[in-house]
Design brief:
By secondary structure, this protein is α/β, with parallel strands linked by helices. The chain has a domain of 213 residues: Spore Coat Polysaccharide Biosynthesis Protein SpsA, Chain A (Alpha-Beta Complex). It has 14 helices and nine strands. Strands 1, 2, 3, 4, 5, 6, 7, 8 and 9 form a nine-stranded mixed β-sheet that branches. β1, α2 and β2 form a beta-alpha-beta unit.
Amino acid sequence: MDEARHGDQQPVDLAVIIPSYKSGDNLPRCLDGLAAQCPPPREVIVVDSSPDFPRESYRRRHPRVRFIHLPERVFAGKARNIGAEAASATFLVFLDTDCVVPPGWTKAVMAAFHRHPGRRAFAGSLRNANPAHIVGWVSFLSEFSGYIGRCRQRRVACLPAYCLAIRRDTFLASGGFPEDFWPGEDAVFSRRLFQQGHTLLIEPSVTVAHINRTRYRDYLRHQFRLGRSFALSRERMPSMAGGNYYLRSGAYLPCMALYRGLLTAGRLLRDYPGGLALLLLLSPLYIGGCLGWLAGAAAGRKAAIGPARHECWGLGVAVMRIEVSRSFGRRRRSGGGRMGDDDHRWGSSRPAAKPGTGI
């Protein structure tokens, strides 16, 4: 089928790598969009770790696509790394299964690289693939405010992996994506690129349509995951925005949530005023998502602090109690006062401090 669509078009030196896990109807839409490209990419590699992936069915429909099936589930970062190792093209694009490419997409990707020979990596812009769903709009506007609307070519702090184009040699030299958590692995990867001296850019000429979550429960669950990954990525790279303050004190969390909301509003006002008006109309749904993110960030911080800090805290509390006991013992021996009944009750019944909280 793919050969008939492509005709005599010579493939371009591009590998499209798609991580997949229980992708449902999204993966067929994604692959159909790639199959319609003229010229086609030289390689399309799907790395899937679903337990019941119908590989043979996909192969019959898309014989030009290489399917790599893994026996156990892996996060998207590891799937992308495996796909990049298997690719041979000079240029890579990491594409998520919930993204659909428009006609002429491969031309736009290659033109963006050729216009700027020194460019090493960039991310594409987004449009909403399911605009009829209210929850889909809330999800789209809250998560991708910096990459939609009247988006201009500019520097960004993160290259989202929904459509991330990069030279293969640059990717391999960077060390690839973190493999042990998701989402947020693209934020850590982007920080590595930045520390290696690469410029991170958004390229508005390269556009994909994003299929958003349409059930509110799924939206809240994903916001929780995003909040948790915020914590884990800052623990991995404290130099990322807010990392040092966040790991030092949980009281920073509400401030960060407020900052995210203001940043989202500012981006939409700049690039997509209509989107800002819509988000304000849907603010009750959006606020619920913000609370979900805040809960996830708190849970992630607790995980990021780790057992070592908890043990240190417990040791400190134990030492403090020993010193207090010794102090009272010296006072008693010297006749320097006696604890009252209320003091005894306080000392025996007050709960131990919660690890990492100081309360």
